[in-house]
Amino acid sequence: MALLETINYKVKTVNEGTDTSAERSVSLKLNIIKNNSKYLIHRAVVNQDNQSRQGTSSTKTRSEVRAGGKKPWKQKGTGQARSGSKNSPLWNGGGVAFGPKPRSYRKKINSKEWKLALQTALFNSSTKITVIANFIEGIDTPNTKKVLQRLENVIDLNSRTLLVLKEPNVNVTLSLRNVTKLDILYSNTLNVKDILLAKNIIIVEDALENIQKTYHD
User: Fold this and answer.
1) What is the CATH code of the structural domain delimited by 2-54+106-215?
2) I want to staple 159 with a disulfide (CB 3.0 to 4.6 A). Which of 35, 49, 109, 199 is the partner?
């Protein structure tokens, strides 16, 4: 059974060289599941990993290998082990037994289950989340030093960090593309695995509002 939980965050205003905590706070309402939450989150992660697999591996069976159909030697009298075809998996250059074929690794998960798993993962990671405001203001061109300074005023970037923006921003993406241990996601493309792997999660205020609208039914 899903439970409604509300998490309150203080909004940190990010300015150049300063870190000012605003008095106002924002709330995030989440539908979570406490019983069997590990099972549901595991299903979501497995589904995500499976969707990232190409599934294009392919080998030829003995019927697909081009090696001729003639019997290599007569059945008896040669001292050799009996053999009926060079296409046999026992032969070098023969077909492959039980090899991979193109297939889809996707596992079905209902959209409501996936949203519930995502919200539960967010709730379990609530202590890792920091909400910031005025992050994109003034970033008119790619500037790694400027963007990093704003983030470092809020949190230590030496550990794996997830930055959540409301929508794609070219200047921010280009500024942070070479920064290690920093991943960028958008409010409508969140996934369970990246939330669980991140040690710190920074969410821009307008992205938090969009998360509420997108995933909370």
Assistant:
1) 3.40.1370.10
2) 199
